[in-house]
Structure formats: C-alpha cells, structure tokens
DNA sequence: CACTTCACGCGAACCGGTTCGATGACCGGC
DNA sequence: GCCGGTCATCGAACCGGTTCGCGTGAAGTG
C-alpha cells in the first residue's frame, strides 16, 4: 500500500500519482479521477517518514517543557492544550519533549535527529541555554517567555514585572502597608526562571515606590507548601494584611492557612497575584488577579512559529502581553489610606 | 552532515558507520574509534526520518486525547505528564493528537501516515470507534480506560463502579441517607464516557443496596457550573446531607455553593468522590476521596505499550486499579445511623 | 606451502516518497 | 505538410539511513 502500488493499479507512473496528490504539476482530469478512485478504494495515505525524508519537512513542531519533577501546574496544562489545538488547526503535529536544558537526551533527539521543523519553548529562564543553543543553530523556534536578552529572537511573553507591580499598586491603593510576596519554589528562582525573577522584581520595585513594608517568600508548588508558607508569613510578621502570589498551585494552601489562622478573606486579609483565570475562579472567595491568558499565548506562539517556518527570512517578532487585573472577591480595604512613602519608609 | 559525510571523513564505507553505530555486526575497535571521533567532532546524529523509513520504526508513540473543547481537567494533565516521562525513560517520543473520534484528521495523520509505532488512548467511551478501529487494524495501542467490551484488548483502567460504590458505602456508614451524585457534563455522559457511566452505575447500585435516597446531576467542568449545580441540589432537596462527585473541575464551585448556603463541611454536609490526589488536597477542607493514581496509570500504559511493541504476539494484558479512599477532612457523621434498607426504602 | 577459516569491511539494493529533465502526442499556424 | 509549442506523463535520481551478500587479507592448520 505505497505510492508504487497506487500507480500500478491506476496504470500510471509513481511521479504522476505524486503530482496528482500535491498538485505541483498539472494532471489531466481523467487520470486524476482514476488515481483518486484507487486511493479511496485502498485508503492510501502517504508515509510521513518517506515524505519528510524527501522534502525535508516533518510537519511537526516540538513543544519543549521541563520535566514534571513533582508536579505540573495548571498553567502548563493550558499552554500545552492550546498549543496542540492551534497546531492541529494548521495541520501540524506536536511532539512533546520534557527537557529543561539543551543537553537533555530528549532535546537532542528532537533537534539533532530532525524530528521537528521548529520548536516552542516553555518555562524560559533568564539565561536559558536552550534559547541560546537554538539561536546559535538558527533553528526556528518561539519561546513562551522572555529571556534576559530577547532581542533578535521570537517570543510571546507576559510582562511579569508590570503585572506584579499592578498587584502591588492595587493593594497599596486599598490601604495595605505590610504585604508578603509568595513566589514559585526557590529552586526555580535560583535557576533563573523568568516569571519568578521578573515578578519578584516588579513587586519589590513597586513596593519600594509605594513605601510598603514587604517580605518575600518562595513556596513549593503544592497546597501543603502554601499552607506552611502562610504560617511562616504570619509568624514573621503578624501585622501582614495582604499577599501577592505567582504560585497558583499553592493558592489553595494559602487560603487554608488563612482560614486556620482565623483571617477572613477579604475582610482581614487580601490576596491577589498572577494566575490562570480558571484557577482564580476555583477558589473561594474568587481571586482578584491578573489572569494569565494561556490559551491566547499558546495560539500566538504557534502562529509565530508557523509564520517563521513559512518565511525563513522574516524579521523576529514577539508579543508582550499585559492582561488587566480582574476584580473578583479576594481583596478589600487595608488598615488605612496610603501615606506618602517618604514618611512610611523611614 | 549525513552518514556519507561521516564515512568519507573516517575513510570507511557508509555501511561500516551504520554497523559501528548499531552494533549489529562486529566492527574492529580501531575503526570504531576513528568513526566515533569523527562523529563527536561533527556532532552528528542520524536523521530520524531516514531511519524510520529504512527500518519501519519511528520510536514515537501517539497520545490521543479529545480536544479541549473548553477545558482540560487536571487529571488529563497528570496523564499527559506521566506518559511523556515514562516514554522518555524508554527512549520514545510522544506525539499528541487531539482526537475524539477515529475520523479526526489528526488521528488519521498519526496512524495512516505511520507517524507513530503505537498509540495510547485517553478518555475512553463505552462504545469507542477509536478503540474498535485500532483493534480492527491490529494497530498496537493501549487504552487508558476500559470500553464496554475490553476482552482481547490492552488497557489500564480504574474500577469506577467500585470506586463510586465505595464512596456511597463510606457515606452510608456515616449515617447519610440523602445523597447527591455530581457527574461530568451531560454531553460526556450522553456520548458514553466510561468514567461517567460506570461511576453513575456504581453509585446508583450501591445507593439502592443501602436504601439511600439519591438524586444524580450532570455538571459542567468548571467552578461556576459546580456552584450552580450545588444550588440546584439544595433546591431540589434541602435535606441532602452529602454528595459524591467525579468532577474535580467543579469541586471548587461545589464548595463555594455550600459555603454560600451556610452549610459547613464536614459538620453539616459531607463531600467525597473520585479525583486526583493533588486536587483533593488543594481544597479546604481537604477532600476525602478515592485518589486517581494518574501517574501510575500513565506509566503502566506506556510499559504495556512498549511490551506490546517489543513482542507483537504477546497476549493482551491489562491493569484494573481500585485505589482506596483516602480519609481526609470533608466527610463526617450524617443525621443518624443507617437503618435496614428494607425500612428506609419504602 | 597450499588450504581452510574467520573477522572485517565494501558495494549495492531497498525503504517510500519528491522532483527534474526528457519524451511523445496533439494542436494550430503558415 | 512541416514546424513550434503545449500539455500530460514517464523514468531516473535523490533524500539518508539499514541490511544483505560477497570479497579480501590475515591468521590458523596439516
């Protein structure tokens, strides 16, 4: 059931069948019908490997994301889902590679063995050897996230700095003066994860600007860690009245910790941060937060990649998104109106 | 940078390079070193398409899961993650196909074009044309889930009937008499999703056995639907004191609904069901539930598939799992001790 | 020293497509 | 009636590996 078989049964040559299928050269209506008939009858589909070998394109894109280690977050799920769907819409398949660094076996397989035409990278670090490696190879790729030096590369990212700052301003406007920041796990911060770094940065700067008293924490990606983290926060400074988090997996645990400490959200304590919308709506009270538009980001990444594949010489493009804060129910007035930072900060 | 280039530089023939790499025929230590040296120097990796074409194996497995539609559940995420990792451990890549039925373009691409050596199917329906199709083709595949007639096929599944029944017995033992069942969305039930059907079945039978008064509901896969569903439950029968759910995405909404109705969990109302452990621990109070061992299931599915690929004539195997109920904090005593069903049920 | 044995390496064919140059049939124009 | 030009089709080469059968030189044997 290969192209030769089809050609034989249709009484034509292999090349004619190929042209009939691809339309790259004219084929008479008559023979086209004959060929199509045989194909339908036998349910023939051209072999992907042979085709890829011949024309150098696999019609597959690679999706590179770090190994679960322990957990994936809901946001990662949303990215994966949206990338797969957007790719399918453009007739691309998606090959998954659980690689954190460019020396991973899986990463090498995907690229070195030319299994994919291009790649989408997730969980970008500020200094990311995968990004550098691909750039050096001039291998078509798009990052979901933005490294320290994104110039000249393709990416779609979130303005974590601005987002975290927006959360701070929101809380400061409500009169909160002592605010905690709950980051992703320390190991991620240490290895330079973009969102963890830029988020922390934006938080710190904005807090300084508003003269807030802050403490920052790293927290494991699970409910138990979130609960423990919250206990630590209240232990370190019982006067804390609000927190900003990037860690959606810990959110349930943070809430539980607050409940157990007898703090009512939002009456006694405000919670906000940057998380995927559907997770923000799962908790009670629903989280006032900057909703990560994971679906849009995945789709845009695929679109950029396909554009880059179709136009190898196109200049680099990117999208930097800054979704607004969705007001829900987890933030409320703080102890008092904000004071000029010059007074409060000394 | 192909095998011919390596051969030229090492001063040997292409076949010798191939044998040196595969070890399928002896190569002298001397030439092997020469070849390896050239390969290391050039960073050569054999082209996957060419290799697949020549020996008929892609070293890729397909993971078939239904399109997101609106949402993926956390459980699906866990499956995907564990499958990818288990596959990577066995040096297989994973190709994602968002296909619900065998006529999907993506499904056809994967199989018809021979992009994968075998497939893992998720979200099985009782009558599943994908399963039937693959069985008819004798295409190596493993289902995560069990269709109505699983004899002679390979699968790893959860005993949803027993699990739902266990939840009922747990509640009945606590003295609950009026219990609601919150299923996955109606559309899934209608199209014959295994878990929705078998779960409903197990619930209904066990409830009848224990003489409970029950109502069953379908509920969308999101928090808002969960909240609405709970309101409906209390509206239909305010005396309801417990519920069993298969719908982890709705869980947060169910809890919220209870809170807003002034019912305290577990004092006034008990909640249990079948969900992934990490989600059960996210909500407050933590959910007493049968934890879906998604990680184990994904791993086992890959192991089965690889076994089947390595031994094409091996007899069908399967794993039916029945994880125990993890006692957490969401269930408590009902209105009174259970009465003999003969009395209660009339 | 001639004869087998063996280890090693080579060349050619093959996997199933795509693509290029060539060929032949048919057409209209002069 | 011959010529130039289309149009449809064919054959062969190629993509980059794998694999089979065979040849060759060195080592072992009587």
TrEMBL record, chains A, B:
**One Pfam family of this chain:** Peripla_BP_3
Q: Which SMART domains match?
A: HTH_LACI
Q: Write out the coiled-coil annotation as residue ranges.
A: none
All copies of the HTH lacI-type domain together span 1-55
List GO molecular-function terms, semicolon-separated. Answer: DNA binding
Alphabetical list of PANTHER family matching this protein = LACI-RELATED TRANSCRIPTIONAL REPRESSOR, LACTOSE OPERON REPRESSOR
> This protein is called what?
DNA-binding LacI/PurR family transcriptional regulator
Specify the species.
Streptomyces pseudovenezuelae
Question: What broad taxonomic lineage does this protein's source fall under?
Answer: Bacteria, Bacillati, Actinomycetota, Actinomycetes, Kitasatosporales
């Amino acid at each position: 059931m290969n192209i030769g078989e089809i050609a034989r049964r249709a009484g034509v040559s292999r090349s004619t069948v190929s042209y009939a299928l691809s339309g790259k050269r004219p084929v008479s209506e008559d023979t086209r019908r004959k060929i199509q008939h045989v194909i339908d009858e036998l349910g023939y589909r051209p072999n992907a490997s042979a085709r890829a070998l011949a024309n150098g394109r696999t019609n597959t894109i690679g999706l590179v994301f770090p190994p679960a280690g322990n957990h994936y977050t809901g946001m990662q799920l949303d990215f994966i889902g949206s990338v797969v769907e957007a790719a399918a819409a453009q007739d691309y398949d998606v090959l998954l590679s659980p690689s954190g660094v460019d020396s991973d076996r899986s990463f090498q397989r995907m690229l070195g063995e030319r299994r994919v035409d291009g790649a989408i990278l997730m969980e970008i670090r500020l200094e990311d050897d995968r990004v550098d490696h691909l750039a050096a190879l001039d291998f078509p790729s798009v990052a979901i996230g933005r490294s320290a030096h994104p110039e000249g590369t393709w990416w779609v990212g979130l303005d974590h700095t601005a987002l975290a700052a927006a959360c701070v301003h929101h809380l400061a406007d409500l009169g909160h003066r002592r605010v905690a920041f709950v980051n992703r796990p320390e190991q991620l911060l240490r290895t330079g994860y973009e969102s963890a770094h830029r988020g922390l940065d934006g938080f710190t700067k904005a807090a300084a600007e508003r003269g807030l008293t802050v403490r920052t924490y790293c927290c494991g990606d699970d409910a138990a860690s979130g609960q423990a983290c919250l206990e630590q926060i209240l232990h370190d400074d019982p006067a804390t009245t609000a927190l900003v988090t990037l860690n959606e997996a810990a959110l349930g645990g943070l809430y539980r910790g607050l409940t157990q400490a007898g703090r009512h959200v939002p009456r006694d304590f405000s919670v906000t941060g940057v998380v995927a919308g559907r997770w923000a709506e799962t908790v009670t009270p629903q989280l006032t937060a900057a909703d990560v538009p994971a679906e849009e980001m995945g789709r845009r990444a695929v679109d950029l990649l396909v554009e880059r594949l179709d136009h190898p010489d196109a200049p680099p493009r990117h999208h930097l998104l800054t979704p607004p804060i969705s007001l829900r129910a987890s933030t409320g007035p703080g102890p008092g109106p904000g004071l000029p930072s010059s007074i409060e900060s000394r």
